[in-house]
Amino acid sequence: MEKNKKNAILSVFDKTGIVEFAQELVSLDWKIFSSSGTARVLHEGGIPVTDVSKITGLAPILDHRVATLAPQIHGGLLAMEKHLQELKKLGYPWIDLVCVDLYPLKEEICRPGATLESVLEKTDIGGPTLLRSGAKGRRIVVIGSSDRERVIEWLKNGEPNAEEFRNALAAKAEAIAADYSLESARFRGNGNYDGIIGHRVVSCKYGENPWQTPAALFAQETNDSLALQNFKLVEGSDPSYINWCDIDRLLQTITHIAAVFEQNHNNIPFIAVGAKHGNACGASVATDAGDALRGMIDGDPLALFGGLVMTNFPISGQEAKLLREWNTSDGTKRILDGVLAPSFSKEARLNLSRKGGKCRLLENSALENLGMDSLDVAPRFRYVRGGFLRQPNYTYVLDLKDPDLEIVGHTCSESQKTDLLLACAVGSTSNSNTITLVKNGAVIGNGVGQKDRVGAATLAIAGAKRSGHDIRGAVAYSDSFFPFPDGPQILIEAGVQVIFTSKGSVKDEATREVCREAEISLYFLPDSRCRGFFGH
């Protein structure tokens, strides 16, 4: 068999578009081989195709479990230049291209009612083997439908940069095969095996510090519309490593706010969140976009300087003007590192732009439809020396109808309940230890990352006062129980009227007593249910 005769093997589970791909190859004078199911579809589509059984001399066996696992196939994929005479002697074809997709293993594993037997039936062996043989043999490896058009264009253009192009396809195939095997190991290993495989989608200038290079954003295969790779940059320079970290944290906070309001009010308000180094320095809910932005901006204007903002509503020229205004008397503009929204008007892009593209504007239409289903439910991983930690994601959402909810003192007003919901959502997505203060639908103080509750309460109060807020009547959220009554006492003395915290301390009764004496509302849930530690 002459090496210069172009041969392709096409064997796909999802037949969508495979006839069109084969037609393009045939028009370029390629010969098509295929396994029985794909061969039938190609034949019905008028494509001249040869069943792989003509190469192997064997029909598929074991209910089609073995069709392409044969030396006649893999020899044609693995052979090198020096093997041409041996291939010719054996009568095996040199195979230049392999186009494969894999049985839908992940979909089966995620299917309710999936069993070991059903998962094994959807575990592909021949497909990954073809991919890896093609990758090792430095052939043209096409996985799924996404690269077919690109490969045809490349072939028509005379195969420029052939080594680099083929190697990139091979690397992708190896990564997909590895992820496929990892999915099977997860399912069958009863939690004993896990890992992360992703592909680089954005290169960052550096990491958290200039000497931390290289740095990049890697994406996993996902159907999540809020995944970071689905945010489209429409203005400004590429986001930095720290920007991407903040965007991920903003998503945690804004989705928790949307979820808690859907859970308790079956209604999603206008939401605006500003963050600096991962923690909310402003967050607000309102019945219109302008009020949401004003509440967010007024939370801690100083901290917001150089931060990122995320909204669940489009940004028009008017909203952009609110975001940029800092000091109207001298025309000073607020500096932001970026804004993320469902969309931006042309006027908004112009108003928010900064010299050098330093204000990044990123669109994602999914932000306009946030709710309970928007919470990130994928496991969270954290690198530790020599391995990684894994835990379920942060998905707790406060339900004020929870039968375990203990209320000491009077039930708070409807406006205070709104503040309570916002405080819980923001505080539980801020670095612990956290005390969050909310008043009139906006965060006025967020004491995050402290080593003790008193320090967190003191920091939240100091931040609120620095920004000119009147704390009297505010709601306070604590992400875990108070070990002593000194924390609640500090909040009460500052004017807080409602406290939400968990219970589980031997001093819980002391916390109840200090709240009773001050005649304020205390909302209590078991620490095992509602503790909001985040980002240790």
Automatic annotation (TrEMBL):
Ranges for the MGS-like domain? 1-145
Which family does the record assign?
Belongs to the PurH family.
Task: Kindly indicate whether the keyword Lipid biosynthesis belongs to this entry.
Answer: no
* Species this chain originates from: marine sediment metagenome
Gene3D superfamilies the UniProt entry points to: 3.40.140.20, Methylglyoxal synthase-like domain
Q: Which InterPro entries match?
A: AICAR_Tfase_dup_dom_sf (IPR024051), Cytidine_deaminase-like (IPR016193), MGS-like_dom (IPR011607), MGS-like_dom_sf (IPR036914), PurH-like (IPR002695)
Return the PANTHER family for the record.
BIFUNCTIONAL PURINE BIOSYNTHESIS PROTEIN ATIC (PTHR11692:SF0), BIFUNCTIONAL PURINE BIOSYNTHESIS PROTEIN PURH (PTHR11692)
UniProt keywords (A-Z) are: Hydrolase, Multifunctional enzyme, Purine biosynthesis, Transferase
Q: Which GO terms describe its cellular component?
A: cytosol
Protein name per UniProt: MGS-like domain-containing protein
One BP annotation, GO: 'de novo' IMP biosynthetic process
CDD domains xrefs: IMPCH
GO MF entry, a single one: phosphoribosylaminoimidazolecarboxamide formyltransferase activity
SUPFAM superfamilies tied to this protein = Cytidine deaminase-like, Methylglyoxal synthase-like
Listed pathway(s): Purine metabolism; IMP biosynthesis via de novo pathway; IMP from 5-formamido-1-(5-phospho-D-ribosyl)imidazole-4-carboxamide: step 1/1; Purine metabolism; IMP biosynthesis via de novo pathway; 5-formamido-1-(5-phospho-D-ribosyl)imidazole-4-carboxamide from 5-amino-1-(5-phospho-D-ribosyl)imidazole-4-carboxamide (10-formyl THF route): step 1/1
